Amino acid sequence: MKDILFLEPVLKEMIWGGSRLKSDFGYDIPSDHTGECWAVSAHANGDCTVKNGLFKGEKLSSLWKNHPELFGNVRGDVFPLLVKIIDAKNDLSIQVHPDDRYAAEHENGALGKTECWYILDCDPDGKIVIGHNAKDKTELKDMIDNQKWNDLIRVLPIKKGDFFQIEPGTVHAIKTGTLILETQQSSDITYRLYDYDRLSDGKPRELHINKCIDVITCPHEEVIADRNIIEFENATVEHLISCDYYTVSKLWVNGSQSFKQKEPFTILSVVEGEGNIDGTPIVKGDHFILPAGYGEYTMEGEVVVIKTV
Ligand code: ZN
Question: Which of 26, 155, 234, 246 has the largest CB neighbor count within 10 A?
Answer without folding.
Answer: 246
